[in-house]
Write a structure and sequence with these properties.
By secondary structure, the protein is mostly helical. 59% of the residues lie in helices and 0% in strands. It has helices at 13-35, 41-69, 77-82, 89-112, 125-139. α1 (13-35) packs antiparallel against α2 (41-69), α1 (13-35) runs antiparallel to α5 (125-139) and α2 runs parallel beside α5 (125-139). It is elongated and about 60 Å long. The relative contact order is 0.20.
Amino acid sequence: MSQRLVPKGAEGRDLLRACWAGTGLFTAIAILTTAAPGAMAIPISVVSLALFAGGCGAMLWAFRRALLRSRYELIGVGGLYFLAGCAPRPVRLSMMSALAVEVVVALIAASVRPFTAAAFGILVPVYALGLSGAWGAGYGTFPPRPSGGTTSIYDDPSRNGDHV
């Protein structure tokens, strides 16, 4: 894989490789599906559902890991799943680029071939989002939770300005 897609020396390179491998597979299948929607109905359905299931599993694992880490660190959803402020720029750029490619490919395929199995592709971006969460939960750096455990809702950066 290209060094731009999987930055050399980055932690969690296996997650980055898996993310781009799934994105590449989906893109190839989606292109074939737009050319021959009838013949590719089963492959696009299987690939899309498998990537969706993998993304859901990764999201659940990331959420569980983040819950354990949240005892000592302030972890927000933006940091965990979108790697905002918790990942090096090359890693964040790589993971968010994979997510963007999945969204664009899914929307184009579903738009070119509406009312076909290409619509299953709309589920695929959960894959990149889930693997981003897994990277954030496993390798991300978050600020420490203040000692004493008493943080008001106004001082908690994980609330992202939500004061309700």
